[in-house]
Each structure stands twice: as structure tokens, then as C-alpha cells.
């Protein structure tokens, strides 16, 4: 049997990830009480969105799409390219397979609204805006109506319930560092594999053009532990701490896992440092120092922006180069750009952009 299909299925962004995220939002809804804030129709839309939020993902992130002027990037005008693509594919499947048959027109429109908005909300370039709104939402705590159950739900406007769905899917999507260690590590291995495969492609492109391999995509110089710690500290922990204000049960579970997993990643990073100090066969040589990760502090939504990885590495969301410190120990290392093969004008634009592994 041909195994060519293996190369067509990304190691991380595949059906397993979709199923896993679906199970996560189901847990938030049914175990941690989020369903009390939502209507059954909202929960239905959220579930469909969770399962399909990365459908047809090519394993090459938004930055790659934009910088290479891919067909998808052109189709979606460089904006939330992969999220828009997945939302479109889900919409087509829902229509052609009549997955929501039986809903009234009004309910169908509401369900589609939840599906599309939640999927687009997984674009990491919107993360910081989501955090800002979530903080204000939690401060207002509109769900704290007396009586619980329907009273909680009735206290929320339809727009607020839609926002809750956005937050739940986004949270589930980046939840890997907040899972029990075995799962956390397995998902991390898979997502790093996907990043490195992208890096290999970048290497091919860049080698031809005399450019260095992009940070975080370079399997010889990227620190998995460093990426994981940075992603957890900078993105996942603040998000879960906010979501736990809405769903307090997450405090003793996901947030606790984040802390214990961080200790393991720190140990792993120390081991990496020790290995680097005493190079062995297969370890990176001098000049291939392992880097942490690259994060953008502001989460730009510029059309040319890219997204953070769903599970662990970094992104560029604005045009930058060079290296600068950000919030303590992490380093923002902005890679040189992918320069497309065609067109000098196009080349000039891309040289100011930065490819990232997501
Ligand atoms: Zn995802």
C-alpha cells in the first residue's frame, strides 16, 4: 500500500487534534459548567467548530502561507488564512452533508455564526484582544445571576454567549501545556515535528536563496523545552487563569498541570543546556545554539501577520527583524524572511516579514 498519504497529513494538525479539542470543549461544557452559560444550540455550534477548526490544515502556518503568497493566502487576502479556510471547509461540509438538517432557519444562522466566529477566534493574532475582552468580561461577571442554570444563561446576551464560545474553543486549542504531563509531552512532540517539517521546507527554500533557517523551525537549534515554557508562561497560563475565573474548576486541574509541567520543562531545558555544554553525537554544534522561542508582545492583527502555534512555538505578527528581550527571560528572535522565488517587488515586501513556525 502506498504511504504517500503520510506526507499529506500533518503530524499535529490532523483529525486527532480536532477530536482532542472537541473533547476539551465538551469537558469545559459538561464537567466544568460552561454549558450553564450557553444554550444547547450554542453548545452544538461550539462542538462542530471544535471538531473542524483545523480541518484541511496543510501543516504550514499562516506566515508560510502569506510569505509564500500561497493560493490560500491569496484567496483570503492574507487575513487569518488557515482559520478562514477551515471555516469555509466546515461550512461547505455542513451544507453539503446537511449536518444541521432540522434546525429552523433562525437556529441554523445562529449555529453557523457560532461555528464561524469560534473558528476564526482560534487565530492567534487575535489572542491579546481576546484576553483584553475576557478580563473585562470577568470583571463584570455577568453570569453570576442568582439561581444558577438557566438564570446564569439568561443573564448573558447572545453576543456574550458567542464570546464565551470563542474563548472556550481558543482555550481548548492551546490547552496542551495544561494537560497531564504524558499528554502534554506527546502533543508537544507532534507539534514540534510539524514545525520542523516546515523548517525543513524553509531550509530548502532559504538554502537556495542563501538565507538562514528560521528560528523555531530549525530542528538543529530550537529548544522544545524553551518553546514550551515560553508558550505556557506568556500565552496559556494567563488565558487559563482568566478562564478559571469563569470556570473555577480549572484552577485545581488545568492551572495546576501548567505549574507541574513547567517544572518538567525546566528540567528538560537544564538537560539541554548540559548536553550543549558537553556536545555528543547528534547534539547541535557550536554556532547552532538552541534558542527559546519568539513571541510577539502585542498580537498584531495586521494582514501580513501570522499566528502563534496551537501548542507551543512562536509566531511573528508584525514586521520585525533582529533580537530583543521581552518580559524577562524570553528572547524574541525575529528571523530573516522567506523570500519567494518569484518577483523582485514581492521579494522586497517579504524581506520585511518574518516567517514563524505554527
Ligand atoms: Zn487547533
TrEMBL record:
Residue sites binding Zn(2+) 2 per the record: 54
Q: Per the record's keyword annotation, is Metal-binding included, yes or no?
A: yes
A Gene Ontology molecular function term for this protein is:
3',5'-cyclic-nucleotide phosphodiesterase activity
Q: Which gene encodes it?
A: PDE3
> Alphabetically, which GO biological process terms does the record hold?
signal transduction
What is the protein name stated in its UniProt record? Answer: Putative 3'5'-cyclic nucleotide phosphodiesterase
Q: Where do the annotations place Zn(2+) 1 binding?
A: 17, 53-54, 173
**Which PROSITE patterns has this protein been placed in?**
PDEASE_I_1 (PS00126), PDEASE_I_2 (PS51845)
The record's section on SUPFAM superfamilies has: HD-domain/PDEase-like
Amino acid at each position: 500500500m502506498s504511504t504517500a498519504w503520510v506526507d499529506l497529513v500533518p503530524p499535529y494538525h490532523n483529525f486527532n487534534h480536532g477530536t482532542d479539542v472537541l473533547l476539551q470543549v465538551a469537558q469545559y461544557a459538561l464537567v466544568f459548567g460552561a454549558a450553564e452559560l450557553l444554550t444547547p444550540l450554542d453548545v452544538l455550534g461550539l462542538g462542530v467548530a471544535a471538531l473542524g477548526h483545523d480541518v484541511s490544515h496543510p501543516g504550514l502556518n499562516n506566515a508560510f502561507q502569506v510569505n509564500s503568497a500561497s493560493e490560500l493566502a491569496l484567496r483570503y487576502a492574507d487575513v487569518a488564512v488557515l482559520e478562514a479556510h477551515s471555516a469555509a471547509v466546515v461550512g461547505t461540509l455542513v451544507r453539503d452533508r446537511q449536518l444541521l438538517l432540522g434546525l429552523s432557519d433562525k437556529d441554523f444562522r445562529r449555529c453557523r455564526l457560532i461555528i464561524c466566529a469560534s473558528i476564526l477566534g482560534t487565530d492567534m493574532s487575535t489572542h491579546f484582544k481576546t484576553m483584553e475582552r475576557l478580563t473585562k468580561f470577568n470583571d463584570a461577571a455577568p453570569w453570576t445571576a442568582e439561581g444558577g442554570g438557566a438564570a446564569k444563561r439568561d443573564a448573558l446576551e447572545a453576543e456574550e454567549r458567542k464570546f464565551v464560545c470563542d474563548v472556550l474553543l481558543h482555550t481548548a486549542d492551546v490547552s496542551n501545556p495544561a494537560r497531564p504531563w504524558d499528554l502534554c509531552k506527546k502533543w508537544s512532540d507532534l507539534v514540534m515535528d510539524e514545525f520542523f517539517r516546515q523548517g525543513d521546507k524553509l531550509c530548502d527554500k532559504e538554502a537556495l536563496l542563501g538565507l538562514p533557517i528560521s528560528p523555531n523551525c530549525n530542528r538543529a537549534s530550537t529548544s522544545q523545552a524553551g518553546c514550551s515554557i515560553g508558550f505556557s508562561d506568556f500565552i496559556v497560563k494567563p488565558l487559563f487563569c482568566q478562564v478559571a475565573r469563569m470556570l473555577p474548576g480549572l484552577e485545581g486541574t488545568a492551572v495546576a498541570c501548567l505549574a507541574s509541567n513547567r517544572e518538567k520543562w525546566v528540567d528538560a531545558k537544564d538537560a539541554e543546556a548540559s548536553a550543549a555544554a558537553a556536545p555528543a553525537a547528534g547534539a547541535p554544534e557550536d554556532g547552532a545554539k538552541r534558542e527559546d522561542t519568539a513571541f510577539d508582545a502585542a498580537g498584531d492583527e495586521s494582514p501580513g501577520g501570522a499566528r502563534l502555534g496551537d501548542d507551543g512555538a512562536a509566531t511573528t505578527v508584525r514586521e520585525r527583524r533582529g533580537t530583543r528581550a521581552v518580559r524577562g527571560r524570553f528572547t524574541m528572535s525575529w528571523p530573516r524572511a522567506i523570500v519567494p522565488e518569484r518577483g523582485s517587488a514581492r521579494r522586497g515586501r517579504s524581506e520585511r516579514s518574518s516567517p514563524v513556525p505554527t
